[in-house]
Hints:
Elements: H1 2-20, H2 32-37, H3 45-50, H4 68-81, H5 85-109, H6 114-125, H7 131-135, H8 140-156, H9 167-182, H10 189-199, H11 208-213, H12 219-236, H13 251-270, H14 278-285, H15 293-318, H16 325-341, H17 360-381, H18 384-413, H19 416-425, H20 430-443, H21 446-459, H22 464-477, H23 480-493, H24 498-510, H25 514-527, H26 532-548
Amino acid sequence: xxxxxxxxxxxxxxxxxxxxxxxxxxxxxxxxxxxxxxxxxxxxxxxxxxxxxxxxxxxxxxxxxxxxxxxxxxxxxxxxxxxxxxxxxxxxxxxxxxxxxxxxxxxxxxxxxxxxxxxxxxxxxxxxxxxxxxxxxxxxxxxxxxxxxxxxxxxxxxxxxxxxxxxxxxxxxxxxxxxxxxxxxxxxxxxxxxxxxxxxxxxxxxxxxxxxxxxxxxxxxxxxxxxxxxxxxxxxxxxxxxxxxxxxxxxxxxxxxxxxxxxxxxxxxxxxxxxxxxxxxxxxxxxxxxxxxxxxxxxxxxxxxxxxxxxxxxxxxxxxxxxxxxxxxxxxxxxxxxxxxxxxxxxxxxxxxxxxxxxxxxxxxxxxxxxxxxxxxxxxxxxxxxxxxxxxxxxxxxxxxxxxxxxxxxxxxxxxxxxxxxxxxxxxxxxxxxxxxxxxxxxxxxxxxxxxxxxxxxxxxxxxxxxxxxxxxxxxxxxxxxxxxxxxxxxxxxxxxxxxxxxxxxxxxxxxxxxxxxxxxxxxxxxxxxxxxxxxxxxxxxxxxxxxxx
Length: 550
Protein backbone atom coordinates (compact mmCIF):
# COMPACT_ATOMS: atom_id res chain seq x y z
CA UNK A 1 0.00 0.00 0.00
CA UNK A 2 2.80 2.43 0.93
CA UNK A 3 4.62 1.62 -2.30
CA UNK A 4 1.51 2.25 -4.41
CA UNK A 5 0.82 5.52 -2.65
CA UNK A 6 4.44 6.59 -3.06
CA UNK A 7 4.33 5.67 -6.75
CA UNK A 8 1.13 7.69 -7.19
CA UNK A 9 2.69 10.75 -5.55
CA UNK A 10 5.86 10.38 -7.63
CA UNK A 11 3.79 10.25 -10.82
CA UNK A 12 1.75 13.31 -9.81
CA UNK A 13 4.89 15.32 -9.08
CA UNK A 14 6.51 14.13 -12.31
CA UNK A 15 3.66 15.04 -14.67
CA UNK A 16 3.05 18.36 -12.91
CA UNK A 17 6.71 19.26 -13.31
CA UNK A 18 6.96 18.09 -16.92
CA UNK A 19 3.95 20.14 -18.00
CA UNK A 20 5.01 23.39 -16.31
CA UNK A 21 8.80 23.30 -15.88
CA UNK A 22 10.55 26.16 -17.76
CA UNK A 23 12.94 24.39 -20.12
CA UNK A 24 13.33 27.14 -22.71
CA UNK A 25 12.28 30.78 -22.26
CA UNK A 26 11.34 31.98 -18.80
CA UNK A 27 10.52 35.67 -19.16
CA UNK A 28 8.66 38.02 -16.90
CA UNK A 29 5.41 39.03 -18.56
CA UNK A 30 2.35 41.17 -17.97
CA UNK A 31 1.79 41.84 -14.23
CA UNK A 32 5.19 40.29 -13.44
CA UNK A 33 6.80 43.56 -14.48
CA UNK A 34 4.95 45.71 -11.93
CA UNK A 35 4.64 43.19 -9.11
CA UNK A 36 8.07 41.58 -9.42
CA UNK A 37 10.57 42.96 -11.91
CA UNK A 38 10.31 46.63 -10.89
CA UNK A 39 9.09 46.10 -7.33
CA UNK A 40 11.59 47.78 -4.97
CA UNK A 41 10.30 45.74 -2.01
CA UNK A 42 11.85 42.52 -3.32
CA UNK A 43 15.38 43.83 -3.93
CA UNK A 44 16.49 42.40 -0.59
CA UNK A 45 15.06 40.23 2.15
CA UNK A 46 15.29 43.19 4.53
CA UNK A 47 13.17 45.33 2.20
CA UNK A 48 10.70 42.47 1.85
CA UNK A 49 10.33 42.22 5.62
CA UNK A 50 9.51 45.93 5.63
CA UNK A 51 6.68 44.94 3.27
CA UNK A 52 4.69 43.70 6.27
CA UNK A 53 3.92 47.36 6.98
CA UNK A 54 3.58 48.49 3.34
CA UNK A 55 1.18 47.98 0.42
CA UNK A 56 2.10 45.51 -2.31
CA UNK A 57 3.88 46.86 -4.25
CA UNK A 58 4.79 49.89 -2.12
CA UNK A 59 4.61 52.31 -5.05
CA UNK A 60 0.98 51.39 -5.86
CA UNK A 61 -1.11 51.84 -2.68
CA UNK A 62 -4.15 52.62 -4.83
CA UNK A 63 -4.42 48.91 -5.71
CA UNK A 64 -5.16 48.09 -2.06
CA UNK A 65 -3.10 44.89 -2.12
CA UNK A 66 -1.49 43.52 1.03
CA UNK A 67 0.61 40.42 0.28
CA UNK A 68 3.80 40.62 2.35
CA UNK A 69 4.49 36.90 2.40
CA UNK A 70 4.30 36.67 -1.39
CA UNK A 71 6.75 39.56 -1.62
CA UNK A 72 9.09 37.80 0.80
CA UNK A 73 9.24 34.70 -1.42
CA UNK A 74 10.10 36.91 -4.40
CA UNK A 75 12.91 38.47 -2.38
CA UNK A 76 14.28 35.03 -1.51
CA UNK A 77 14.30 34.09 -5.21
CA UNK A 78 16.02 37.37 -6.07
CA UNK A 79 18.59 36.90 -3.30
CA UNK A 80 19.69 33.55 -4.70
CA UNK A 81 19.42 34.16 -8.45
CA UNK A 82 18.92 37.86 -9.08
CA UNK A 83 16.03 38.91 -11.27
CA UNK A 84 16.32 35.84 -13.49
CA UNK A 85 12.85 34.78 -14.56
CA UNK A 86 13.68 31.06 -14.68
CA UNK A 87 14.29 30.84 -10.92
CA UNK A 88 10.96 32.49 -10.14
CA UNK A 89 9.14 30.15 -12.51
CA UNK A 90 10.82 27.09 -11.01
CA UNK A 91 9.69 28.12 -7.54
CA UNK A 92 6.12 28.42 -8.79
CA UNK A 93 6.23 24.91 -10.25
CA UNK A 94 7.64 23.47 -7.02
CA UNK A 95 4.85 25.11 -5.01
CA UNK A 96 2.26 23.78 -7.44
CA UNK A 97 3.62 20.22 -7.21
CA UNK A 98 3.44 20.42 -3.41
CA UNK A 99 -0.15 21.66 -3.64
CA UNK A 100 -1.07 18.69 -5.85
CA UNK A 101 0.38 16.33 -3.23
CA UNK A 102 -1.69 18.01 -0.50
CA UNK A 103 -4.82 17.75 -2.64
CA UNK A 104 -4.20 14.01 -3.01
CA UNK A 105 -4.02 13.79 0.78
CA UNK A 106 -7.24 15.80 1.13
CA UNK A 107 -9.07 13.52 -1.30
CA UNK A 108 -8.00 10.53 0.80
CA UNK A 109 -9.32 12.32 3.89
CA UNK A 110 -12.64 12.64 2.05
CA UNK A 111 -12.61 8.83 1.69
CA UNK A 112 -12.60 8.87 -2.08
CA UNK A 113 -10.39 5.78 -2.14
CA UNK A 114 -6.90 5.50 -3.58
CA UNK A 115 -7.96 5.43 -7.23
CA UNK A 116 -10.37 8.35 -7.19
CA UNK A 117 -8.11 10.39 -4.90
CA UNK A 118 -5.37 9.96 -7.49
CA UNK A 119 -7.81 10.94 -10.25
CA UNK A 120 -8.79 14.11 -8.36
CA UNK A 121 -5.19 15.18 -7.88
CA UNK A 122 -4.25 14.39 -11.49
CA UNK A 123 -7.21 16.28 -12.96
CA UNK A 124 -6.47 19.25 -10.72
CA UNK A 125 -2.79 19.20 -11.72
CA UNK A 126 -3.65 19.17 -15.42
CA UNK A 127 -6.49 21.73 -15.39
CA UNK A 128 -5.62 24.39 -18.00
CA UNK A 129 -7.29 27.20 -16.04
CA UNK A 130 -4.32 27.05 -13.66
CA UNK A 131 -1.72 28.25 -16.13
CA UNK A 132 -1.97 31.93 -15.22
CA UNK A 133 -1.53 31.16 -11.52
CA UNK A 134 1.33 28.71 -12.09
CA UNK A 135 3.15 30.05 -15.16
CA UNK A 136 3.01 33.78 -14.55
CA UNK A 137 5.30 34.75 -11.70
CA UNK A 138 2.72 37.20 -10.36
CA UNK A 139 0.35 34.27 -9.90
CA UNK A 140 2.39 33.08 -6.93
CA UNK A 141 0.00 34.74 -4.49
CA UNK A 142 -2.68 32.29 -5.68
CA UNK A 143 -0.34 29.33 -5.21
CA UNK A 144 0.79 30.31 -1.74
CA UNK A 145 -2.66 31.21 -0.50
CA UNK A 146 -4.23 27.93 -1.63
CA UNK A 147 -1.23 25.87 -0.52
CA UNK A 148 -1.39 27.24 3.02
CA UNK A 149 -5.20 27.00 3.00
CA UNK A 150 -5.17 23.29 2.14
CA UNK A 151 -2.43 22.74 4.70
CA UNK A 152 -4.57 24.50 7.31
CA UNK A 153 -7.52 22.31 6.35
CA UNK A 154 -5.56 19.06 6.60
CA UNK A 155 -4.23 20.01 10.03
CA UNK A 156 -7.69 21.05 11.18
CA UNK A 157 -9.05 17.61 10.31
CA UNK A 158 -6.60 16.21 12.88
CA UNK A 159 -7.83 18.30 15.81
CA UNK A 160 -8.28 16.07 18.87
CA UNK A 161 -10.32 16.29 22.07
CA UNK A 162 -8.22 19.22 23.32
CA UNK A 163 -10.03 21.41 20.79
CA UNK A 164 -8.49 24.78 20.03
CA UNK A 165 -5.62 24.04 22.42
CA UNK A 166 -4.45 21.07 20.38
CA UNK A 167 -1.25 21.46 18.32
CA UNK A 168 -3.23 20.65 15.17
CA UNK A 169 -5.66 23.53 15.76
CA UNK A 170 -2.88 26.00 16.53
CA UNK A 171 -0.82 24.82 13.57
CA UNK A 172 -3.86 25.12 11.33
CA UNK A 173 -4.44 28.68 12.52
CA UNK A 174 -0.79 29.53 11.81
CA UNK A 175 -1.10 28.23 8.25
CA UNK A 176 -4.36 30.14 7.86
CA UNK A 177 -2.48 33.31 8.83
CA UNK A 178 0.12 32.57 6.15
CA UNK A 179 -2.66 32.09 3.58
CA UNK A 180 -4.11 35.51 4.43
CA UNK A 181 -0.68 37.15 4.24
CA UNK A 182 -0.15 35.61 0.79
CA UNK A 183 -3.38 36.89 -0.72
CA UNK A 184 -6.50 38.52 0.65
CA UNK A 185 -8.81 35.78 -0.64
CA UNK A 186 -7.16 33.31 1.74
CA UNK A 187 -9.35 34.78 4.49
CA UNK A 188 -12.43 32.89 3.21
CA UNK A 189 -10.86 29.64 4.41
CA UNK A 190 -12.40 30.23 7.84
CA UNK A 191 -15.85 29.61 6.36
CA UNK A 192 -14.59 26.48 4.60
CA UNK A 193 -13.14 25.18 7.85
CA UNK A 194 -16.44 25.79 9.63
CA UNK A 195 -18.25 23.61 7.11
CA UNK A 196 -15.67 20.86 7.55
CA UNK A 197 -15.92 21.12 11.33
CA UNK A 198 -19.57 20.09 11.17
CA UNK A 199 -19.73 17.89 8.07
CA UNK A 200 -16.72 15.63 8.62
CA UNK A 201 -16.74 15.06 12.37
CA UNK A 202 -16.61 11.43 13.45
CA UNK A 203 -18.49 10.05 15.28
CA UNK A 204 -21.54 11.92 14.05
CA UNK A 205 -22.62 14.94 16.09
CA UNK A 206 -25.85 14.08 17.95
CA UNK A 207 -27.54 17.48 18.28
CA UNK A 208 -27.27 21.16 17.30
CA UNK A 209 -25.40 22.06 20.51
CA UNK A 210 -22.74 19.46 19.75
CA UNK A 211 -22.45 20.72 16.20
CA UNK A 212 -21.91 24.27 17.40
CA UNK A 213 -19.38 22.99 19.91
CA UNK A 214 -17.48 21.50 16.96
CA UNK A 215 -16.72 25.08 15.89
CA UNK A 216 -14.79 25.89 19.07
CA UNK A 217 -11.45 24.68 17.64
CA UNK A 218 -11.81 27.56 15.16
CA UNK A 219 -11.28 30.15 17.89
CA UNK A 220 -7.59 30.67 16.96
CA UNK A 221 -8.57 31.06 13.31
CA UNK A 222 -11.16 33.70 14.20
CA UNK A 223 -8.50 35.56 16.18
CA UNK A 224 -6.17 35.35 13.18
CA UNK A 225 -8.84 36.79 10.88
CA UNK A 226 -9.57 39.71 13.20
CA UNK A 227 -5.86 40.43 13.57
CA UNK A 228 -5.33 40.24 9.82
CA UNK A 229 -8.21 42.63 9.09
CA UNK A 230 -6.86 45.10 11.64
CA UNK A 231 -3.29 44.87 10.32
CA UNK A 232 -4.39 45.24 6.70
CA UNK A 233 -6.55 48.25 7.57
CA UNK A 234 -3.70 49.94 9.42
CA UNK A 235 -1.27 49.37 6.54
CA UNK A 236 -3.52 50.27 3.62
CA UNK A 237 -5.95 52.72 5.17
CA UNK A 238 -8.57 51.52 2.72
CA UNK A 239 -10.66 48.43 2.05
CA UNK A 240 -11.01 48.45 -1.73
CA UNK A 241 -8.92 49.63 -4.70
CA UNK A 242 -9.23 53.22 -5.85
CA UNK A 243 -10.35 52.10 -9.31
CA UNK A 244 -12.77 49.25 -8.55
CA UNK A 245 -14.37 47.91 -11.73
CA UNK A 246 -17.93 48.29 -10.46
CA UNK A 247 -17.19 50.96 -7.89
CA UNK A 248 -19.78 53.44 -9.17
CA UNK A 249 -22.21 50.92 -10.66
CA UNK A 250 -25.82 50.86 -9.52
CA UNK A 251 -27.32 47.70 -8.01
CA UNK A 252 -28.88 46.54 -11.28
CA UNK A 253 -25.64 46.88 -13.24
CA UNK A 254 -23.71 45.08 -10.52
CA UNK A 255 -26.28 42.26 -10.46
CA UNK A 256 -26.26 41.59 -14.21
CA UNK A 257 -22.50 41.96 -14.49
CA UNK A 258 -22.06 39.46 -11.67
CA UNK A 259 -24.29 37.02 -13.55
CA UNK A 260 -22.16 37.34 -16.68
CA UNK A 261 -19.01 36.78 -14.64
CA UNK A 262 -20.54 33.67 -13.05
CA UNK A 263 -21.29 32.31 -16.51
CA UNK A 264 -17.67 32.71 -17.58
CA UNK A 265 -16.58 31.17 -14.27
CA UNK A 266 -18.49 27.97 -14.90
CA UNK A 267 -17.63 27.79 -18.60
CA UNK A 268 -13.92 28.07 -17.84
CA UNK A 269 -14.07 25.54 -15.02
CA UNK A 270 -15.86 22.98 -17.18
CA UNK A 271 -14.37 23.57 -20.63
CA UNK A 272 -11.40 25.98 -20.71
CA UNK A 273 -10.99 25.80 -24.48
CA UNK A 274 -10.04 29.46 -24.92
CA UNK A 275 -7.54 30.95 -22.49
CA UNK A 276 -6.99 34.69 -22.68
CA UNK A 277 -5.65 37.71 -20.83
CA UNK A 278 -8.03 39.81 -18.78
CA UNK A 279 -8.19 42.36 -21.63
CA UNK A 280 -10.19 39.82 -23.60
CA UNK A 281 -12.66 39.25 -20.78
CA UNK A 282 -13.12 42.99 -20.31
CA UNK A 283 -14.37 43.10 -23.89
CA UNK A 284 -16.17 39.73 -23.71
CA UNK A 285 -18.11 40.48 -20.53
CA UNK A 286 -18.15 44.26 -20.30
CA UNK A 287 -20.26 46.21 -17.82
CA UNK A 288 -23.72 44.67 -18.17
CA UNK A 289 -26.58 47.07 -17.50
CA UNK A 290 -29.53 44.87 -18.54
CA UNK A 291 -30.41 41.16 -18.62
CA UNK A 292 -28.43 39.10 -21.14
CA UNK A 293 -28.32 35.42 -21.91
CA UNK A 294 -24.95 35.09 -20.20
CA UNK A 295 -26.14 36.90 -17.08
CA UNK A 296 -29.31 34.83 -16.80
CA UNK A 297 -27.42 31.58 -17.34
CA UNK A 298 -24.77 32.59 -14.83
CA UNK A 299 -27.28 33.31 -12.10
CA UNK A 300 -29.30 30.19 -12.93
CA UNK A 301 -26.24 27.95 -12.60
CA UNK A 302 -25.07 29.65 -9.42
CA UNK A 303 -28.49 29.37 -7.77
CA UNK A 304 -28.68 25.71 -8.79
CA UNK A 305 -25.25 24.98 -7.34
CA UNK A 306 -26.02 26.81 -4.10
CA UNK A 307 -29.37 25.01 -3.82
CA UNK A 308 -27.68 21.64 -4.31
CA UNK A 309 -25.10 22.50 -1.66
CA UNK A 310 -27.76 23.61 0.83
CA UNK A 311 -29.84 20.48 0.14
CA UNK A 312 -26.90 18.19 0.81
CA UNK A 313 -25.94 20.15 3.93
CA UNK A 314 -29.48 19.89 5.33
CA UNK A 315 -29.52 16.16 4.70
CA UNK A 316 -26.20 15.78 6.46
CA UNK A 317 -27.39 17.96 9.34
CA UNK A 318 -30.70 16.11 9.84
CA UNK A 319 -29.37 12.56 9.65
CA UNK A 320 -26.29 12.49 11.86
CA UNK A 321 -26.97 8.94 13.01
CA UNK A 322 -26.37 7.64 9.49
CA UNK A 323 -23.52 9.73 8.07
CA UNK A 324 -22.61 9.14 4.46
CA UNK A 325 -18.96 9.85 3.66
CA UNK A 326 -19.72 10.74 0.04
CA UNK A 327 -22.41 13.21 1.05
CA UNK A 328 -20.20 14.81 3.70
CA UNK A 329 -17.35 15.05 1.19
CA UNK A 330 -19.67 16.68 -1.35
CA UNK A 331 -20.78 19.28 1.20
CA UNK A 332 -17.14 20.11 1.90
CA UNK A 333 -16.30 20.24 -1.81
CA UNK A 334 -19.18 22.65 -2.41
CA UNK A 335 -17.69 24.86 0.31
CA UNK A 336 -14.30 24.73 -1.43
CA UNK A 337 -15.98 25.81 -4.68
CA UNK A 338 -18.38 28.49 -3.50
CA UNK A 339 -16.58 30.36 -0.73
CA UNK A 340 -13.43 31.05 -2.84
CA UNK A 341 -15.70 32.35 -5.61
CA UNK A 342 -17.04 35.06 -3.33
CA UNK A 343 -14.01 37.43 -3.25
CA UNK A 344 -14.00 37.76 -7.05
CA UNK A 345 -17.78 37.77 -7.56
CA UNK A 346 -17.97 41.61 -7.40
CA UNK A 347 -20.20 41.43 -4.35
CA UNK A 348 -17.31 43.46 -2.92
CA UNK A 349 -15.27 45.95 -4.98
CA UNK A 350 -12.20 44.55 -6.76
CA UNK A 351 -9.85 45.91 -9.41
CA UNK A 352 -10.38 43.44 -12.29
CA UNK A 353 -13.53 42.26 -14.01
CA UNK A 354 -12.35 38.69 -14.57
CA UNK A 355 -9.08 36.83 -14.68
CA UNK A 356 -8.37 33.14 -15.07
CA UNK A 357 -6.27 33.11 -11.90
CA UNK A 358 -9.45 33.95 -9.96
CA UNK A 359 -10.62 30.38 -10.60
CA UNK A 360 -7.50 28.71 -9.23
CA UNK A 361 -8.85 28.17 -5.70
CA UNK A 362 -12.48 27.43 -6.69
CA UNK A 363 -11.26 24.80 -9.16
CA UNK A 364 -10.15 22.62 -6.25
CA UNK A 365 -13.73 22.24 -5.07
CA UNK A 366 -14.93 21.83 -8.65
CA UNK A 367 -12.53 18.96 -9.36
CA UNK A 368 -13.48 17.18 -6.13
CA UNK A 369 -17.18 17.54 -6.94
CA UNK A 370 -16.63 16.28 -10.49
CA UNK A 371 -14.75 13.25 -9.16
CA UNK A 372 -17.47 12.46 -6.61
CA UNK A 373 -20.19 12.82 -9.23
CA UNK A 374 -18.27 10.71 -11.74
CA UNK A 375 -17.67 7.97 -9.19
CA UNK A 376 -21.35 7.85 -8.22
CA UNK A 377 -22.46 7.73 -11.85
CA UNK A 378 -20.03 4.98 -12.81
CA UNK A 379 -20.92 2.85 -9.80
CA UNK A 380 -24.60 3.08 -10.64
CA UNK A 381 -24.05 2.20 -14.28
CA UNK A 382 -21.25 -0.38 -14.34
CA UNK A 383 -19.94 -3.43 -12.45
CA UNK A 384 -16.79 -2.92 -10.32
CA UNK A 385 -14.38 -3.98 -13.08
CA UNK A 386 -16.17 -1.72 -15.54
CA UNK A 387 -15.92 1.18 -13.09
CA UNK A 388 -12.15 0.75 -12.94
CA UNK A 389 -11.76 0.60 -16.71
CA UNK A 390 -14.12 3.50 -17.42
CA UNK A 391 -12.63 5.69 -14.68
CA UNK A 392 -9.11 5.01 -15.95
CA UNK A 393 -10.00 5.83 -19.55
CA UNK A 394 -11.98 8.94 -18.65
CA UNK A 395 -9.37 10.29 -16.25
CA UNK A 396 -6.53 9.53 -18.64
CA UNK A 397 -8.28 11.21 -21.58
CA UNK A 398 -9.16 14.35 -19.64
CA UNK A 399 -5.71 14.55 -18.05
CA UNK A 400 -3.95 14.14 -21.39
CA UNK A 401 -6.08 16.82 -23.04
CA UNK A 402 -5.52 19.13 -20.07
CA UNK A 403 -1.77 18.48 -20.09
CA UNK A 404 -1.44 19.36 -23.77
CA UNK A 405 -3.44 22.57 -23.39
CA UNK A 406 -1.71 23.52 -20.13
CA UNK A 407 1.74 23.01 -21.60
CA UNK A 408 1.03 25.14 -24.67
CA UNK A 409 -0.43 27.92 -22.54
CA UNK A 410 2.47 27.68 -20.09
CA UNK A 411 4.86 28.37 -22.96
CA UNK A 412 2.92 31.54 -23.74
CA UNK A 413 2.96 32.81 -20.16
CA UNK A 414 6.73 32.37 -19.98
CA UNK A 415 7.32 34.08 -23.33
CA UNK A 416 6.02 37.65 -23.54
CA UNK A 417 6.07 37.62 -27.35
CA UNK A 418 3.97 34.46 -27.58
CA UNK A 419 1.62 35.75 -24.89
CA UNK A 420 0.84 39.01 -26.67
CA UNK A 421 0.74 37.42 -30.10
CA UNK A 422 -1.97 35.13 -28.79
CA UNK A 423 -3.85 38.06 -27.29
CA UNK A 424 -3.99 39.75 -30.71
CA UNK A 425 -5.80 36.81 -32.27
CA UNK A 426 -9.06 37.58 -30.47
CA UNK A 427 -8.61 41.16 -29.34
CA UNK A 428 -8.17 44.48 -31.13
CA UNK A 429 -6.77 46.57 -28.32
CA UNK A 430 -3.90 49.05 -28.37
CA UNK A 431 -2.54 47.48 -25.17
CA UNK A 432 -1.96 44.18 -26.95
CA UNK A 433 0.10 45.90 -29.67
CA UNK A 434 1.91 48.10 -27.15
CA UNK A 435 2.93 45.20 -24.95
CA UNK A 436 4.00 43.09 -27.92
CA UNK A 437 6.11 46.00 -29.16
CA UNK A 438 7.77 46.26 -25.74
CA UNK A 439 8.51 42.52 -25.81
CA UNK A 440 10.13 42.83 -29.24
CA UNK A 441 12.16 45.84 -28.09
CA UNK A 442 13.43 43.86 -25.13
CA UNK A 443 14.72 41.23 -27.56
CA UNK A 444 16.17 43.79 -29.96
CA UNK A 445 13.81 42.77 -32.80
CA UNK A 446 13.35 46.34 -34.00
CA UNK A 447 11.51 45.80 -37.29
CA UNK A 448 8.85 43.68 -35.60
CA UNK A 449 8.58 46.23 -32.79
CA UNK A 450 8.13 49.06 -35.29
CA UNK A 451 5.19 47.30 -36.93
CA UNK A 452 3.40 46.88 -33.60
CA UNK A 453 4.06 50.49 -32.59
CA UNK A 454 2.57 51.68 -35.86
CA UNK A 455 -0.58 49.59 -35.32
CA UNK A 456 -0.97 50.85 -31.75
CA UNK A 457 -0.60 54.50 -32.80
CA UNK A 458 -3.13 54.00 -35.57
CA UNK A 459 -5.64 53.08 -32.86
CA UNK A 460 -4.61 55.95 -30.57
CA UNK A 461 -2.06 58.49 -31.88
CA UNK A 462 -1.69 60.02 -28.41
CA UNK A 463 -1.17 56.85 -26.39
CA UNK A 464 1.67 57.50 -23.93
CA UNK A 465 2.90 53.90 -23.78
CA UNK A 466 3.04 53.61 -27.56
CA UNK A 467 4.88 56.91 -27.90
CA UNK A 468 7.29 55.77 -25.22
CA UNK A 469 7.91 52.59 -27.22
CA UNK A 470 8.56 54.71 -30.30
CA UNK A 471 11.18 56.67 -28.36
CA UNK A 472 12.86 53.45 -27.22
CA UNK A 473 12.82 52.20 -30.83
CA UNK A 474 14.49 55.42 -31.98
CA UNK A 475 17.04 55.09 -29.19
CA UNK A 476 17.89 51.48 -30.05
CA UNK A 477 18.06 52.38 -33.75
CA UNK A 478 20.66 55.07 -33.00
CA UNK A 479 18.45 58.05 -33.87
CA UNK A 480 19.24 59.88 -30.64
CA UNK A 481 17.87 63.27 -31.74
CA UNK A 482 14.47 61.75 -32.57
CA UNK A 483 14.45 59.79 -29.31
CA UNK A 484 15.25 62.92 -27.31
CA UNK A 485 12.48 64.84 -29.06
CA UNK A 486 9.97 62.05 -28.37
CA UNK A 487 10.83 61.75 -24.67
CA UNK A 488 10.90 65.52 -24.11
CA UNK A 489 7.44 65.78 -25.67
CA UNK A 490 6.20 63.10 -23.29
CA UNK A 491 7.67 64.98 -20.32
CA UNK A 492 5.75 68.10 -21.31
CA UNK A 493 2.59 66.03 -20.91
CA UNK A 494 3.70 64.42 -17.64
CA UNK A 495 6.83 65.84 -15.97
CA UNK A 496 6.51 63.25 -13.21
CA UNK A 497 6.92 60.18 -15.42
CA UNK A 498 9.94 58.36 -13.98
CA UNK A 499 10.23 55.96 -16.91
CA UNK A 500 10.52 58.81 -19.41
CA UNK A 501 13.27 60.45 -17.34
CA UNK A 502 15.04 57.09 -17.29
CA UNK A 503 14.75 56.78 -21.07
CA UNK A 504 16.06 60.32 -21.52
CA UNK A 505 18.99 59.37 -19.33
CA UNK A 506 19.70 56.36 -21.52
CA UNK A 507 19.62 58.65 -24.56
CA UNK A 508 22.23 60.94 -22.96
CA UNK A 509 24.31 57.92 -21.97
CA UNK A 510 24.24 56.66 -25.55
CA UNK A 511 25.33 60.13 -26.71
CA UNK A 512 28.40 59.93 -24.46
CA UNK A 513 27.15 62.47 -21.91
CA UNK A 514 27.26 60.66 -18.53
CA UNK A 515 26.81 63.90 -16.56
CA UNK A 516 23.44 64.66 -18.18
CA UNK A 517 22.54 60.99 -18.00
CA UNK A 518 23.24 60.91 -14.26
CA UNK A 519 21.06 63.95 -13.59
CA UNK A 520 18.18 62.40 -15.53
CA UNK A 521 18.59 59.04 -13.83
CA UNK A 522 18.56 60.89 -10.50
CA UNK A 523 15.20 62.44 -11.43
CA UNK A 524 13.88 58.96 -12.21
CA UNK A 525 15.13 57.62 -8.88
CA UNK A 526 13.58 60.56 -7.01
CA UNK A 527 10.23 59.91 -8.67
CA UNK A 528 10.34 56.13 -8.20
CA UNK A 529 12.61 55.39 -5.24
CA UNK A 530 13.94 51.88 -5.11
CA UNK A 531 13.22 50.87 -8.70
CA UNK A 532 16.23 48.63 -9.37
CA UNK A 533 16.54 49.65 -13.03
CA UNK A 534 16.78 53.35 -12.27
CA UNK A 535 19.19 53.00 -9.37
CA UNK A 536 21.46 50.65 -11.32
CA UNK A 537 21.59 53.06 -14.26
CA UNK A 538 22.40 55.95 -11.92
CA UNK A 539 25.21 53.99 -10.28
CA UNK A 540 26.67 53.11 -13.69
CA UNK A 541 26.60 56.74 -14.85
CA UNK A 542 28.28 57.91 -11.64
CA UNK A 543 31.03 55.32 -11.99
CA UNK A 544 31.62 56.48 -15.54
CA UNK A 545 31.88 60.09 -14.35
CA UNK A 546 34.38 59.06 -11.68
CA UNK A 547 36.50 57.10 -14.15
CA UNK A 548 36.49 60.05 -16.58
CA UNK A 549 37.57 62.53 -13.90
CA UNK A 550 41.20 63.79 -14.25
